Amino acid sequence: MSILVNSDTRVLVQGITGRDGSFHAKGMLDYGTRVVGGVTPGKGGEQVHGVPVFNTVKEAVSATGANATVIYVPAKFAPAAMREAMDAAIPLIVTITEGVPTLDMMDIYHEVRARGLRMIGPNCPGVITPGQCKIGIMPGHIHKPGRVGVISRSGTLTYEIVYALTNLGVGQSTCIGIGGDPIVGSGPMDLLPLFEADSGTDAIVLVGEIGGDEEERTAAFIREHIKKPVFAFIVGHTAPEGKRMGHAGAIVSGGAGTAASKLKAFSHAGVPVANTIDELAEMVAAAMRR
Amino acid sequence: MKIHEYQGKELFRRYGIRAQDGEVAETPEAVARIAESFGRTVVVKAQVHAGGRGKAGGVKLAKSPEEAAQKASAILGMNIKGSRVRKVLVADAVDIAREVYLAIILDRSARGILFMASAEGGMEIEELAVTAPEKIHRFHALSREFPEAEASRVAPLLFGPEQAATVLDIMRKLFRMFIELDCSLVEINPLVLTPGGEIIAVDGKVNFDDNALFRHPDVEALRDLAEENANEVEAKARGLSYVELEGDIGCMVNGAGLAMATMDMIKLFGGRPANFLDVGGSSNPDKVVHAFRIILSRPGIKAVLINIFGGITRCDDIAQGILEAFQRMSIDIPVVVRLTGTNAAEGLALLEGSSLIPAATFADAVKKVIEAAGGPNVEDEA
User: Fold this and answer.
1) Which of A9, A52, B65, B154 is surrounded by the fewest CB atoms within 10 Å?
2) Where in chain A is the domain with CATH 3.40.50.261?
3) Does A49 qualify as catalytic in the annotation?
């Protein structure tokens, strides 16, 4: 079992003829993901790695029955690509693109919810259910099928953690990189209940970083709603204040946003927080042996 | 991206918000001429991005052109939180009957836009948020539509009902500016009511969403590179992400999260990270060379840690990049390299015989780099 994606997921690649889109479509195909079509306006009728290309998302969906899409188009065009996917009512939209304007994401965040769809990203590595379906840019081979769910705001740090888990023999049910932008389609509080309800997940790893108050609110949410064990890791203890979070963030959250504040919130909610990646992997491995 | 007060005020005026009159100058002579043209008391204000310039002595009243020039020569060249003052704003000293606070901010937790207003203007809002949070009125817009009802409720709470229409109009214009220019913060503090009943923005702060700058070349043109860290600017131009810290161990990492984790780990083990540097996913030797140049441009760097997780990027490609970088520049401090993931063994094999210090694990790499930099810091506070 898993959440969001599995071996039945039929994936479209928006921007498949671009350099990144084509490269990662190949990586997804090699992993065994059912990539059923690509979309690039004006390139309909072509093929990329044997995958048919369509001019519009709607055409692609009606021809292939796709139920997920991944967006690799440049930031300038990404909001339009996300809207096109929403208009075609694709239930899962994964946006890899980095650099989408925040106000555009504000609009899209609320629209995607109003339509009952789900978005992961932007500025994220994607979603993977090991052994079944990889949507995004993560290296597939470091993953291993298993029973630990992973939710993270980061890319390579997530790979590092997954790799440490795999090396200790701890497999993953599904790993989600939610994205590092101020506004992303799905946050930990959207995804934790899915893992809680998934019979294939026994424990959850949550990787957070400085900025905003998502982790603080997530900690409170876990205490109320999540019974499965959650293990956390926070980065940015050494980040200078004000460098990444602007003046505004500091006011809005009133003391929240620092790594120390997040750590405190998790401890208060009874969520163990590891000091190092190795320690995190060992904590999870020990819990899984029990 | 941040801009100066005088630039923010120009934007306020462009959106029809009355702002304190003033002109920017770079010499005491120019300041005197501007003060002369006002013909009355002026205020000379340091133009730096850093906050707290008032407390640092960067804002002074002057009753005559001579006094203005004198105050300006003290302020120009002053160092405020690491920024050297190059420009001052010479502004008409506004008579204040009352002052309030008004701001519009990107609020990530609400996935929207937050309005904050308070009848207690002039003081630092962070301070007010701690001492009297109930005095800050807050409401949201979750779309590009102005929140008319909420704004109408709050507008009379600032200067009273007789000024409510003017305040509401300012809120509307400020919101339009926020949306049209892709701001992340617009703040008027204080917004002043004069004894004559006029409402004037006397100080302001405007920040922009970096992700949206591509569609605002006019805003990008307001960037003051002198205010930004030269190394950080250089890094950005090279496609690297770099932030300076105060330590002595340089870091070169792929991925922002892993870069932060690396800094944290160095600190945890008793070392002092000198920087955050994300080289991105590329194994391009040029990037590695630029990264080295930037890291080593600062005095006092004792060792460098390269921490790479090979995912899509292969570690042997990265190793090749590092070796090329070493051929192209002379590096005479210890460099510890840890490669993990795709083709890590091949990558480490390539580095054999070089002066680089290989490390098998993240923890091992951090210990080695701290040793190379002179050992852990016992008095470290963390």
Assistant:
1) A52
2) 139-289
3) no
| Shortest distance, CA A26 to any CA of chain B (angstroms) | 12
In chain A, CATH 3.40.50.720 covers 10-120
- Report how far residue A191's alpha carbon sits from residue A176's, in angstroms, rounded to the nearest whole number: 9
Residues of A in contact with B130 (CB under 8 A): 254-255
Strand B112-118 relative to strand B199-201, pairing: unpaired
CB atoms within 10 A of CB A50: 7
Nearest CA-CA distance, residue A110 and chain B, Å: 8
Mean pLDDT within B274-289: 81
Q: Calculate mean pLDDT across residues B346-352.
A: 89
User: A139-289, which class in CATH?
Assistant: alpha beta
pLDDT band at A273 (very low <50, low <70, confident <90, very high): very high
DSSP three-state, residue B89: strand
Fold of A10-120: Rossmann fold (3.40.50)
Q: Which of A29-38, A212-221, B335-344 has the highest mean predicted lDDT (pLDDT)?
A: A29-38
Residue B9's Cα: distance from chain center in Å?
19
**Which of 79-138 (A) contact B at CB < 8 A?**
99-104, 106-107, 109-110, 137-138
Query: Are B111 and A158 in contact (CB < 8 Å)?
Result: no
Q: Mind telling me the catalytic residues of B?
A: 101, 187
3-state SS record for chain A? CCCCCCCCCEEEEECCCCHHHHHHHHHHHHHCCEEEEEECCCCCCCEECCEEEECCHHHHHHHHCCCEEEECCCCCCHHHHHHHHHHCCCCEEEECCCCCCHHHHHHHHHHHHHCCCEEECCCCCEEEECCCEEEECCCHHHCCEEEEEEEECCCHHHHHHHHHHHHCCCCEEEEEECCCCCCCCCCHHHHHHHHHHCCCCCEEEEEEECCCCHHHHHHHHHHHHCCCCEEEEEECCCCCCCCCCCHHHHHHHCCCCCHHHHHHHHHHCCCCECCCHHHHHHHHHHHHHC
Q: How sure is the predictor about A250, in pLDDT bands with cuts at 50, 70 and 90?
A: very low
pLDDT tens digits for range A10-24: 999 999 999 889 999
Checking ipTM against 0.85, whether it exceeds it is yes
Q: Say whether B182 and A142 touch across the interface (CB within 8 A).
A: no
Global pTM value: 0.91
Put simply, whether A209 touches B (Cβ < 8 Å) is: yes
Q: Assess whether pLDDT exceeds 50 at residue A46.
A: yes
Of all residues in chain B, the one with the smallest CA distance to A236 is B260
Average pLDDT value for chain B:
91
**For chain B, first and last CA: distance in Å?**
31
